[in-house]
Every structure is written in structure tokens, then in C-alpha cells.
Amino acid sequence: MRWNRFFAIAIPFFGTIILSLACLAQTAPQAQSSPPDQQPTPADQRPTPSSASAPHRRHVRQNRAQASTQPAATSKSDKPAEKPSAPESAKTSDPGRSVSAYGKWTLVLALLALLVVAGIGWVLHLQLELIAKMLEEIGKSAKDTHDVAAAAQAQADSTRALAESVLDQTKTSARLAEEFKRSADASKASAESYASMANSTAENLKFTQLNVHLEQRAWVSALMTLRQFKAGKPILSDIVTSNSGKTPALHVDVTMEVLLAAPSSEPPRNGNATRQSQDEQARNLAPQATMRTIVGERMEMAAEDFKKIDDGLLQYTVSGVIRYDDIFGNGHETRFCGFIDPASKAILNYKTGNEMT
Predict the structure, then answer these.
(1) Buried residues in 45-74 as b, exposed as e (16+ CB within 10 A)
(2) What torsion, rounded to 10 degrees, do the Cα atoms 127, 132, 133, 138 define?
(3) In order along the chain (357 residues), what is the average pLDDT of each group of 10 residues?
(4) What confidence score (pLDDT) does residue 32 get?
(5) Class of residue 334 by CB neighbours under 10 A (exposed 0-12, middle 13-18, buried 19+)
(6) Is the model's pTM score more than 0.70?
């Protein structure tokens, strides 16, 4: 549409310019086509001597120029040949030929103007066809819009009737819901009462079951004693595992570790000396029964390290984990951790790292 508007404005504008140029071209030769000899001479106008002598002077100048260009042999003759001067009419352009040229240009410009007008008519024809199609589409859209509006109105009427029916049903359902609500409130109160009683019973049962488990389960602990502490010999310690519960401890597994580290009041996490681990094969431990394990038999102790331990510069640590199951299928762990006190020559427990679960 933007280009169509541009052409609709540009074509008439340039067409007008071309037509103007055609008119100017057509009027120009009319002023120049009339020769001087055909113009009327006033009755009182007479030729003057100066005007009559002008052709004669031009003729004399032409003869002199021709005489200067002839060869010397010719100049010896008494009477030089004189060529007749060309007629004055040959020196001037043909007015008829000029008029014919202007007529041709006028015809060309007229044809161009005709083509421009035809182009304008074609563009206007296309514009009219486009407008007609747009009007037709608008008419179809208006009809479709009318049909849609009618269908929407019918749908709205049906929806309104359905809404009224639903509203009536909603009112009825609301009354039923209120009755159900009262019944539900009563049922809820009863259910809460029963639930409270059930929760209380379940908690009591769980508490009783927990007490029974705690009372009847196996309780495994570890006691560390120093068996041997002499220079030149391995440092030996006894780990006595005992079950103080009322039921057996099943699948008892003891893992022990000896670590040499810097002195500390807390269990060392990493040592910079020799580390030794020792696992005992899993077994069952009856109630009130004990199991003894010797630690350090396979660990070689250098004399320099023993002296540092005896002087308190190095700490000999014994730690371990006891894993077992009770008869109820629950797994438990007992952790122990102690160090050799050079002054008392005994294994003392750390403040942390000894716990039972």
C-alpha cells in the first residue's frame, strides 16, 4: 500500500512535467520557423545603402580569400577567375527540416504522455480492484462476525439457563452440606477422641516395648588393661569384652587399633607413627559372659619409641569398636579409646570417644 500511494502521487507529477515539456517543445519551432524573407515589410521601409552593400562586401571578402589560395600560375593571368559565390539561401539552415525535427520530438513526448496516462489508469484500476477485494473481505468478516455474535448470544442464553439450574442445585447441595457438616463434626469429635485414645495406647505400647527391649537386650562393654610394658619387648594390653545384658549378643565383631601420636587429652585422629589394626572373628556372647583379646603382639616397638612413651613425649593409644546385634534384630556399637599413662603404668580412658548405643 505504501508503494502504491507513492506511484499514485509520482506518476501524475512526472506526467505533468513531461506534458509541460511537450508543450514548450511544440511552441519553440513556431517562433523560429518563419524565415526573414517571408515577414511583411512595411510600405514606408526602403532598403538603405548600408543594407544593400552588405552582400557585396561579403562577396568581395570571399573572392579575396579564394584568390590567396590559388597557385602562382593562375596569378600570372590578366583576368583572374572568379567563382560565383554560393547562394545566400544555402548558408542558412532549412526551416522545414527544423520544423520536422520538432514535430518528431512532439510526437515522442505525446506518446510518452499517453503511456504515462495509461500507467496511471492501470494503477488506478489495480487500486480499485484491491479496494473492491478489501470491501468484499470486510463484508464477509462482518457477516461472520454477525453469525459469531448470534451464536455467542445463543450460547450465553444457554449458559445463563444452565447457571440458574446449577445455582438451584448449589443451594440444595449447600443445605445438604450443612447437614453433612454437622454430622461430620460430630464424627470428627468422636474420631479425635478415639484417635487420642489410640495414640495414647500406641505411645504406651511403644514405651512399654522400648522398656522391654532396654531391659532384655544385650549390653556389651570393653575394659582395657595394660598387660606388658617393658623395654625391648612389645607393649601388650588386654581388651576384656563383657555382656551385662539379659539376652545374648549376636555376631560380636571387635576391631582394635594401636596408634602412636603426640600427647593430647583428646583421642588422636591421625598419627605420625606406626599404626596397627586387629580384627577379632565374629562370635556370640552369652549374658554375663566375657571375652579377652590381647592387643600389640604383632606390633614391633623400637627402643627409641619406647623411651619416648616412658618419658611422656609420645602417646601410646588403644582404640576400637565393638559391633553386635541383640535378639530383637537391632544393631548396636560400643566405642572405646584409651592411652598408657607412664606414671601409673595403666591405660586411662579419654574423656571422649567412649560411648555405647
Answers:
(1) eeeeeeeeeeeeeeeeeeeeeeeeeeeeee
(2) 130
(3) 55 64 55 45 45 48 51 43 46 54 76 79 84 88 86 88 87 85 84 82 85 91 93 91 94 90 84 50 86 85 90 92 94 95 92 91
(4) 44
(5) buried
(6) no
Q: What is the pLDDT of residue 288?
A: 94
- Rounded to 5°, the CA angle 93-95-101 comes to 100
Alpha-carbon distance 294 to 322, whole Å?
15
CA-based nearest residue to 341, from 234, 221, 232, 235:
235
Nearest-angstrom CA–CA distance, 90 and 98: 15
Rounded to whole angstroms, the Cα distance separating 318 from 234 reads: 14
DSSP string, 56-122: HHHHHHHHHHHHHHS-HHHHTSSS---PPPPPHHHHSPPHHHHHHHHHHHHHHHHHHHHHHHHHHHH
DSSP assignments along 293-353, one per residue? EEESTT----HHHHHHHHHTSSEEEEEEEEEEE-TTS-EEEEEEEEEEETTTTEEEE-SSS
CA-based nearest residue to 318, from 243, 248, 267, 250: 267
d(CA 36, CA 85): 21
